[in-house]
Design a protein that fits this description.
Elements: H1 12-67
C-alpha cells in the first residue's frame, strides 16, 4: 500500500490509525443522529395522537376564562 508522508514525525501507520479513529467517531455520531431522529419521529407521532384532547382542553379553558371575564374574546 502506498502512503505519502504529509505530517511531521508521523509514520504511515499512525496516520492510518488516526483515520480509522476519525471514521469510527463519524460512524458513532451518524448512528447517534439516526437514533435521535427515530426518537423525534416517535415523539411527534405520540403528539399527533394526543393533539385532539389537548386542543379540546385548551378550548374549554379558554371558554372558562372568557366566561369569567379574565381574557378578552378573540375577534
Amino acid at each position: 500500500m502506498f502512503c505519502m508522508r504529509r505530517g511531521r514525525n508521523r509514520s504511515c501507520g499512525e496516520r492510518l490509525e488516526r483515520d480509522k479513529d476519525l471514521k469510527r467517531a463519524l460512524d458513532k455520531t451518524r448512528m447517534q443522529m439516526i437514533a435521535w431522529k427515530e426518537r423525534f419521529v416517535i415523539f411527534m407521532e405520540s403528539l399527533a395522537d394526543v393533539r385532539p384532547f389537548v386542543s379540546l382542553l385548551f378550548s374549554m379553558l379558554r371558554l372558562l376564562f372568557v366566561k369569567h371575564g379574565n381574557v378578552k374574546k378573540r375577534t
